[in-house]
Amino acid sequence: MGLILDSSLLIADERGQFTLSTWLRARPPEPVAVSAITISELWFGIEAEAQAVRARRRRRWLEKICRRLEIVPLDAAVARVHARLWAQLSAAGQMIGPHDLIVAATATHRRWALATFNAEEFRHIRGLEVIEP
Hints:
Order of helices and strands: EHHEHHEHHEE
Oligomer: single chain
Shape: globular
Strand content: 5-15%
CATH architecture: 3-Layer(aba) Sandwich
CATH topology: Rossmann fold
Distance between the termini: 17 Å
Number of helices: 6
CATH class: Alpha Beta
Low-confidence stretches: none
Number of domains: 1
């Protein structure tokens, strides 16, 4: 199995509130990746940053993350899982945020666990293993 990282972990790492590398080293070895939408969320934060110095620091941090982690695209296979989850959650009146739904579809498609600090957001997704550090 592998692990998909949610933006909440990466944001906490970037802010110094969580040390992702230490947490990952303490876990059994496994592949680790992020959804492309997670990278988009992080780039958005940088693009919206008003302070140029902070934006440069954050850009360097994110570029390092992008070099170290696999970025899983939203391809046709992930899109199909996304549509299935969307239909299930919508029918049950349990919708989650659109970006979180893509992240969940990415993890579900790969049959990997999802690591997040927002476990409650993903609780209604059947078959998704959610890990909260």
